[in-house]
Amino acid sequence: MCLAFKARAATKDIDAIFEPSSEIRSAARKVAEDFSLSSDWLNDAANAFMKPLDKRRLLFELSNLSIWTPEADYLLAMKSISARWDSSDKDDVVFLIRHLELKSAKEVFKIIENYYPKHEIPPKTQFLLEEIFE
What we know:
Helix content: 40-55%
Strand content: 5-15%
Number of strands: 4
């Protein structure tokens, strides 16, 4: 959200999908030590909410690193499904709703259902969206 949309000034970690995971985790531990970062500064927990990603855009590319970001509608679906109350998910969802110019929870659910079957949408997602559109 910070890098792709400049939605907020800072984040505590970087959500990522990376391969080969063991080598990158090892390198991330070294970076954490060298720069006094939290051991979980590079976080792949979002994998639990990730679906195969067709719609993405390249943010930048170096010789050994490519940074891709999902499109806004996919991020909205993922953040809505995640809906962690102790995180910036709600603020991110609100930002993405405005960015996509959505006017109702029904419109958001249509987007979510493009990526997740109805049975995978947790009740907390509905509660979050009802609260946002009150």
